[in-house]
Write a structure and sequence with these properties.
alpha+beta, Pnp Oxidase, Chain A, nine-stranded mixed sheet, about 40% strand
Length: about 170
Amino acid sequence: MTHEKLSPEEAEHEFWQHLKHGQTVMLGVDVAGHHTQPMTAFAEPESNLVWFFTRDDLDLVKEVAANGDGKFVLVSKDEKIYADIRGTLSISRDKLRIDKYWNPMVAAWYPEGKDDPQLTLLRFVPDEGQLWVSKQGLIRLAFQMAKAKLSKTMPNVGGVADVNFKH
């Protein structure tokens, strides 16, 4: 597989653009033996933060309380961004963020609404990661693969970059 040149800045820009549209990611603590789980991300590129609604009775919250090293994996809905991100997870009850991101999908998980005693947030601060970006779309990707097969070369599927979010 060949890759186009992709700067860390371009990769980070694409990452935030895709993540801020409510992407589901696989979130967990970055500790051996612990698994990730699907969570909807609420991105704040301007503050380098990602928020997740959760319940304080879940194992993930207990794991975060014991070890704040976090990770998540993203495959964007349009399959143009793939990301493996490491950072810091912490527990929050930020009322401003709850109000800002509250929606009918979130509300379904909290029978008592915004005042549900188990409602909590996880705050993720990305540190570093690796991002793969492909702007080609399905038809162009299929063309690249067919071209590579005919020419006995590797397909050009996009770019990859290591990103340090603390710049």
